[in-house]
Amino acid sequence: xxxxxxIDLLRTFVAVVETGSFTKASxxxxxxxxxxxxxxxxxxxxxxxxxxxxxxRNLALTRPGxxxxxxxxxxxxxxxxxxxxxxxxxxTGRVVLGAPDDYVSSLLSPVLRRFSNLYPHxxxxxxxxxxxxxxxMLADNKIDLAFVTRDRxxxxxxxxxxxxxxxxxxxxxxxxxxxxxxxxxYEPGCVARLHTLAAxxxxxxxxxxxxxxxxxLGLVATVDAGLAVIAxxxxxxxxxxxxxxxxxxxxxxxxxxxxxxxxxxSDRPTCDYLAAQMVQxxxxxxxxxxxxxxxxxxxxxxxx
Length: 304
What we know:
Layout: H1 7-19, H2 22-28, H3 33-47, E1 52-54, E2 59-61, H4 63-87, E3 93-99, H5 101-118, E4 122-128, H6 131-139, E5 145-149, E6 157-162, E7 164-168, E8 181-185, H7 191-202, E9 207-212, H8 216-224, E10 229-233, E11 242-244, E12 256-262, H9 269-290, H10 297-300
Parallel strand pairs: 3-4, 3-5, 8-9, 8-10
Antiparallel strand pairs: 1-2, 5-12, 6-12, 7-10, 7-11
Pfam family, one: LysR_substrate
Protein name: Transcriptional regulator, LysR family
Family: Belongs to the LysR transcriptional regulatory family.
């Protein structure tokens, strides 16, 4: 008879993978680092195999570890769905969620899929607009929740810090040699625009605001045409474009802070559950982006 999986062990395993660190996983699962290490050892003993490759630099999954990861996530998701089906079987209603289109496509899709599996009777309406346009809609109670970039008018529960990167065409863009540098920018008042201009000013780089758009697609079109470089949240960069940086003489840009903001009329369970799902799912992934699995075995107490 095979031993049964302990879901707590699977949760710890997934947390280690997603945070890229035994130390950060211990925070995510509310256990000590030593306890996390022991749980991974116990899981490996049960399976009779190693889940992480051991060396002095990288925290990487073995082939069995990669296989387990897929099943572990499915088991955890099913556990959540079963719990919600029994404990909250009558959750119904409607939530209007506002978010920039690039955040929806790059960050929110898996969250919305999981939420819909947990609460199939909740209707979600998505309003795609830039954060600057969503602020007055939130104040007027036209939307319930906003997954947006934090600024002076938009406050909420912190979810993640998203790096900003310079983006150009995949072949070395000729525009980099131009002086002043042609730059495509988001609309005035946008935090991303302010961070981009501050970075250029701090680095004393001569530039001209060649194009301005409230649309991600509008800015990407200028890069595709070889007319400008742009700065985007890293999660929003299309795969066909190149991420540029210091090697091309471009400066560091302050990251964006993404929050879940709520309207005055969002004090109801459906909004509570969706807001909590966004924070739960995306905060861990943010840690993974911020620091890939590159910590030393001695620092992170990798089980040997």
